[in-house]
Amino acid sequence: MNRFGRYPAGTIAALAALLGGFLFSGDAPAGTPSPQPMALERAARILHDSVATLEGSRAGLEVGIEVRVEGQGVLFRRAAEEAKPAASAIKTFIALDLLRERGDRLNQAPEGLAAFLRPGIHEAFAGFTDLELDAARRELAGMTWWELARVMMGRTREGNGVYNAACNLIMIKLGGPTAIGERVRRLDPAFAGVDLNRYMMSWHADGDNMATPRALAALYRMTSAGRVPGLDPDRVARLRELLVREGDGAPGSRFEKAGTLYPQPMVRVRAGYVERGDRDLVYAVMGRMRPGERRLDPPDAFVFLLAAVDTLTSICRDLS
Fold this sequence. Notes:
Blueprint: H1 9-21, H2 37-55, E1 61-69, E2 73-78, E3 84-85, H3 91-102, H4 130-140, H5 145-152, H6 160-173, H7 177-187, E4 210-211, H8 213-225, H9 233-243, E5 244-246, E6 254-261, E7 266-274, E8 281-289, H10 298-317
Antiparallel strand pairs: 1-2, 1-8, 3-4, 5-6, 6-7, 7-8
Helix pairs in contact: 1-2, 1-10, 2-10, 3-7, 3-9, 4-6, 5-6
């Protein structure tokens, strides 16, 4: 049986509408200097209709979105001021704090990291298995601040445990999640929707670090413009190095940090920007499955969530 065979009819219709709506890409010919007005209008309509259909499917999906084209304004906004679990997308704010607090010593190795990577030593690693801690001690040994940041941001090939252990070590050395969150919120009013309250892999169906789509979009707007509070131009360039996913910084390059949580909370986040000169396209797409309303088995709900958020993100990015 097709994996989607157990989906309620409304859920299948929602996915079909979303994926069908994505096929608008011919409105934005390759090589144009910026998205054209007709493409923008149609993309906004597709996003509006797709989100309405998805949230009306009774699958339990909740979406928050902010999409902008610099110099032209907001393309689409939905629940952009409502905080949602951010998963690893919150790491861009942690990277910002690291660059601000330790940007003058990125090539130095912080001391005493291995001591934290033992069972029962620090709350940051309560959710890690002994094997994950062993791998983290082995693979992160002797790393500099910059090397740890690259692992934290998914720029290397380490596994999930090491990827998140690097982030937790950085947070410990920066004073913990609460201290980082407080500093981030003081940097700019646009970051008021950021709530760093726990270490990676320490969620137990009781929440997660939170952010609003507007706060994520604000950070990427600042990064794309080269003006991030607390960072000089060299450190902004470093932040971009941590975020680049496609290209070399020329027009068409994509900068992004995604995040995913499963099974509870069940979350998918995509946030970043596409370089378009003075018409950068900035997006933050956050999705969460509400457990109380979900009509799907957890694996099917997760597939639905990934398909919905990733396709909504593709609709936004296709304008580039």
